[in-house]
Structure formats: structure tokens, C-alpha cells
Amino acid sequence: MADKRLQPKNVNLRPDRFERRVVYEKCGRAKYISHLDLMRAMQRAIKRSKLPIWYTQGFNPRIYIMFPLTLSLGFESKVEVMDIALLEDIDFDEVVKALDAQMPEGMKIVSCGIPVHSHTEITYAEYSIRMVTDRSSEETMGLFEDFLSKDKIEIEKRSKKKTVNIVDIRPSLDVKEMSADTDGFRLSIRLPAGGNFNLNANVVAETFLGMYGLNNEEICIERTKILLADGEDFC
Amino acid sequence: MEEIKNKLEKILLKANKPARYIGGEIGSVVKDREKVDVRFAFCFPDTYDVGMSHLGMKILYGLKNQVPNWWCERVFMPEKDFEMLMRENDIPLYGLESLDPIKDFDFIGFTLQYELSYNNVLQMLDLAGLPVLAKERTSLTPLVVGGGPCVCNPEPMTDFFDLFILGEGEEVNLELLRLYEKMKPSCPTKEEFLREAAKIEGIYVPRFYDVDYNEDGTVKSITPNVPETPARVRKRVIADFDKVYYPDSFVVPFSEIVHDRSVVEVLRGCIRGCRFCQAGFIYRPFREKNIDTIKNETKSLCEQTGYEEVSLSSLSTSDHTKINELLTSLSEYTDGEKVNLALPSLRLDSFNEELLERIQAVRKSGLTFAPEAGTQRLRDVINKNITEEEIMSTCKMAFEWGYTQVKLYFMMGQPTETDDDIRGIAELSDKILQLYFETPMEKRGRSVQIAVSTATFVPKPFTPFEFEPQATEEQIHHKQEVLKSAVRSKKIRLSLHYSNTSVLEAVLARGDRRVGKAIYSAWKKGCYMDSWDEHFQFDKWLEAFAETGIDTAFYANRTRSYDEVAPWSHLDYLVSHEFLVRENKKAHLAQTTRNCKEGCSGCGVRPECGGVYCGRQKTST
């Protein structure tokens, strides 16, 4: 490879940067890793993998790594996405193998490809929620049906300017499935996600629990899909 | 395990930074519990963030886990929010690797790094579901053992421990666990096992010693009460330091910890002998690793952990005999791998332009120096052998390189200190400030700040100042006022620490077995996490001292005579009592002592211990 110092500073002019979109799982013990900690853990995993990683070209070079959608602390997911860039055109399988070998318990590299859609195209995400409250699963489900029958469900949402807005989330709740099982009330729901309007599944659950004065004994949330505006998978 | 895991599932998300309580980090060692014969809970009596930064734990964790049928796990003090959740849900203290309760382990080992963590030991034993008092734990296991620098005087903690491990742990830990593994099938009693363990050099079993006191409250004698144990227990030392075990991987935490980086130990011990510094005496003799060893360990750790920074650990890195060669060689590797090379513990007088340039190349932070005392006279008293000229020339160089921040650390309340010495701190800071203004405009940075921090001196065992009284609170407040009125420039920022914790440290550091009653009583009143300002309750401690008849002034503020029997006099840390007395006398005459490199001063450490400079005099003359 040519001497790196002779290459243009502008990253877009650099031919030898091979972008990779990696899909990974974050389950079990790994769900307790916060997003900030995850970024560090991934950087270290990449370093251990010895993949020829591309560093940012600033004053303090850093491993280039992008997460299009954060996953809240405590959520599980099998569809998480991160983008990295390599200095060499390495096979997808090889990237999967090298990174997967460095994953901590609960994390797994699922696949690797070339990014197709931009991060800003993410519009929805789907979640599977299981909750155990101080009522029976059937009662909890009944209350959730009542919750959905409301015309308006208003919550306070902090904007980036630190002002608090009142937002009606009812139109954003797109329930796909509900059931009452022995191990709790199960809900599959599609919510807006991404930069424009993001609705955290936890906020929905808390609003529901709060409205009916339910005690949350256990709540498990898994992100199952990341979707584009037309309902197609992000990757 | 499943039981604790299921319970944890329900509470973890209610805790602050839950990743600290569930394990699963890269580098953590998980074994099949069916195939393991000895289980060891390595407890650091402070939070995960602090304990995970501790190098000793990383070494001993890796060392024990190298043995296939031993399993060493990590245990930390939970933060109070999580501790409450644990208690509410009946979760006993567990090992982070297996999530099994540690009360079922063979060994529970605590490292005692600082006095203010003592009460966390009691709290952790209690959280594990065990009696805190050793005499109430009658079965063989768990054996509660302690190590670390504070066990050079473990007397205040003897009520709570079965045995202490003195000195460096790399060999003696293996010997102790091997003995246990051998004896375990025959189901010995605790007493039987401890009697055998007491025969191992470096193992101190406090129940095998009787302590008598004089009428004035001082110790009269400390005598063994069983034949197996020596009159004096000698600390362990690794003679061939270059070949000593060093881990090739670390547990890499998810959440950010205090020192979140690879660490390579380059040398052990210190040649300097600053008279206030306990580490400078108890870790003697000075030994170092070869450059190739250090380089290999650096490479291996960086590759295994993926850390973006590696730090060289020692008491004084620049005292490595081949420091420049070492740094050149290491930075070749680290620069190529885009790894930061951090160099803490550089001594002021050893700073040369080349070193400064190297730090400049990798890290552009401010400079931190510890002159410790404001006047040359007092620096001579404490044997901090730096002259004002050396301080000035280093700072001049730093300013010319564009550094704009200089941090200076001082101690208050050192032996023979006068108000002039305190004003000397202000004068020295002022001179450094003037240096900045004398630096040509085009070279120096845009503004300047001199940050002056003072801490209260705490006399420690096995130092020449172990005989000295600690300054009282009133004296320290007076000194602080003197300093405040002597500082005139706004460019000099003072942070004057006075905390009652230094009184507590002084009592615990030089206490005897009777102080243990006060520790127990204070713990009963809810004192723990004492090193955390928000949790420290001095009033409760004072109550505990009063109730147990402990006079803090007797332990902290009294001058001890040279022939008084110290509570730790049955422990042998190689440095001789005669040497400490000699050094104390010289301190009062403001006479310095040369460092080991310049020539031996006869501290009592034998050449067989492997010191680089030990015994050299004999061969050269």
C-alpha cells in the first residue's frame, strides 16, 4: 500500500477504505452493557481481532465505528448493527469469524455486508416485550387493551434543547401481537425509531404500568427488527 | 448459581452501572466447578471501579487460575444501592465468574491496600453470610486470608482473619493452596490446617501469638503460643524478579474503571528511601525486569486485551537502569500499534529533555510533581533528594515545551516542620510561576496555572517516621492558614485537604490488636466505605473509639521511643530496626541518605533477595 501520509485527508477521496456493515446479537449477560461501554468494548474487540481497521484521520486517530441505532440498557437484540471500515477488501465471512472470536459472553456476530441504506433511513423498530406484573397475565393484557383504546396517550418527552414537550404516543403504537402466557403478558409492537422520532419501548411500558398503578416484577424487552419507512428490513 | 442468576435478572436493571455485577467480561476465567478442587474468592474491599484497576489482583488471579483444578474468582464491594437490593432479595455476596456464593469457597482472600477499606472487609463478610469474627467461624472453610501492603501491621484486623500473607504473593500463594489441596482430603480442623500453614515462610497466623501490654498501654511482648510458628514472621520476596509470573491477559471490564488500560510492571522496590514513604521500605529491595521481558509482556497484553493504552507501573519508572533504551524500544512497538504509552511515577530529578520529548510525543497532559516539602531543609529531613535547582530546571524546560499546567503535591505535618517550611511552599510555587513569565512569549503557552495540593502526613510502620507523632487537627489548620496568607497570585490554585480520615488512618496504620474492638464497634454503627467522603462518618468512629476505650491521640499523636515494642515487631520486613532508628536520627539533623544506586546504606535487606544494588559494595571494594 502507498505511504499513508501521501493520501488525501478527505476520507471521501480515499480509495482504500472498505466499509462493512456488521449485524450482531446482544443477549444474556451482555444486555447489561450500556451503549457507551459497548462502543469501547467493540473497539477493543476489533483491535484484538487484528483486522486491518481504518482509523479516523484526525488529530487523535480513533477506530472508525458507527452505531446507527442505540439499544437501551437491559434490552436484548439479535438484529443490532454497527458500521466499520477496513484498509483491505476482506471477505465478509472472514470478518464475521475474526470479530466473533472476540465477542464476550452473550454477544455474537451474525453477518457482515456492505452498507446499503444510510442510518437516517431507519424509521421503525419492532420489539417483543414480556412483562410480569402484580396482576395475572390475562388481567395485564386486558388493561393493555384498555390502554390501547384511549384516544390520546400523552407523555413528557425531553427534546435536544432540553425543553419538555408533551407528545401523544397513541398514534405511534402499532401492536402486532398480544398474548397472555403462564410466564407473563407478551406483546409484539412496532414503534418509531431513528433520528427523527424515537420512542423507547421502556417508555411505553412504564407509561402503561404507571397509568394503571401496576407493579413491574419483571420486564424483558427484545428488539426484533430494524425497519425502513416502507417496512423493509434496514439490513 | 442459577438461583443467584435468576434473582440478579430481576434487580440488575435497578442498579447503577449493572455491568459491574454480572461478570462475563473478556479475559475472565470460567471453569467447570465439577473439575475444580480449590476455590478462591479474591476480594477487593472497595467498588469494582477501584478494585478492577488493581495490578496485584490481576497477577494473583492469573497465577492461581493457571492451575487447572484451582479456580480464583473476583469479588468487589457493591455500591450501596446494589447492596440494598442484594439484601432485600437475599442474595449473598457471590463470585463474578460463577455467580456462586463465596461462603462456600475454600478461601476468601482480601487485599488490604489502604486502612480506610478495613471496614469493607467486615461488611463483605457479613454480606457473604459469614460471621465477621474469626473465632466464630469454626469450620475449616472458608479460610479468610489477607495480603497487601497494610498487612505489614495487620494487628487491628487480627480479630477478623485466619491468616495473613506477608510480602510478595507469587510464590507463597501457590505454597499455601498446595498445602490446602494436599490436606483437604483428610478433613483437618481449622487449627490443624493453620498449624501447618504457619510453617510456610511469610504466613502469619495471629491466633498463634499472645500479646501482653505494659501499664502505660504500650505493647510489652508478642510471643508465639504454639511450636510451629516462628518468633518473627518474615515477608516473602521474589529474588528473580525478571522470571516472576506475569499475566498475559487481563479481565477487560465493560464499564469504565479508574485505570482502564494495560499495565506492565517494570520494577519493584525503590532505591530512594524517602523517609515518609512506606512503599519505599516495605517493597525493598530494588529489582527490575529486562527490556525484552517488559517488551514481550507489553505486546502480549496489548494483543490480548485490545486496550488502546499501556502504562508502565513502578514506584519510580525513571530509576530503571536502562530507562532510555526501554522507552525507545517500547515506543517503537506502541506507536506502530496506535497504543498510548503512559508513564506515571517519573521522578523530578531524572527528567531530561529526551524523556520529556517522549511524553510529549504520546501524551500532552500537564506535568505533575511531588516536591513534598517547601524548603530544602525539610526536603532533607524527609530525604526527598531533590534540589530547588532541579525543580526549576525541569519546570523551565516544561514551560519552554509549551506546558501550561504544573501540579505540585506537598505534605503537611511532617517531622520538624515549621511555619517557614509552610511559607516555603508558597515561595516555591511563586518562583515556578516567575519562571513561566521569564519564558519567551513565543515558546510558552498562553496562560499558566500552578495547582498546589497538600495532604496530611500519616506516619506508617516500617518507615523511619514510624516513631513520629501525627500533627493534630489544630496544628494542620494553623499551617493551612499560614499557607493561604502566603499565596498571593491568582495563578496559584490551592487545594488544601484536611479530612478526619487521616486521623483514622494514623490510628489504624500503627494500631495494635485492641483497635480491632473499635473497628468492630464502628462497623456495627454502620461505618464502612470510609474512603468515600459521602459515606465517611467520623462522629460514629469517635463514638466507637470512646466506647472501646481507644485513645486516638495515644496511637496517632504520641512520640514513640526507639525501644518501645511496636505492635508489628514480630513481623520482619527485611529492613532492620537499627536502620530505621539511624534514619530517624539523621532526619532530625536534616541529613540526607544516599540512594541505593549511589551506594549501600545498610538497610538490612540481604543480597540473596536479588536487589540490583544489594551487595554490590562488597564486590567493588
UniProtKB/TrEMBL annotation, chain A:
Highest taxon listed in the record's lineage: Bacteria
Domain DUF2344: 21-175
Pfam families: DUF2344 (PF10105)
Protein name as catalogued: Radical SAM-linked protein
Species of the source: Ruminococcus albus 8
TrEMBL record, chain B:
Domain named Radical SAM core: residues: 256-493
SMART domains, sorted: Elp3 (SM00729)
Molecular-function annotations in GO: catalytic activity; iron-sulfur cluster binding
Gene3D superfamilies: tm_1862 like domain
InterPro entries: CHP03960_rSAM, Elp3/MiaA/NifB-like_rSAM, Radical_SAM_N2, rSAM, rSAM_horseshoe, rSAM_sf
PANTHER family assigned to the protein according to its UniProt record, in alphabetical order: RADICAL SAM DOMAIN PROTEIN (PTHR42731:SF1), SLL1084 PROTEIN (PTHR42731)
Protein name: Radical SAM domain protein
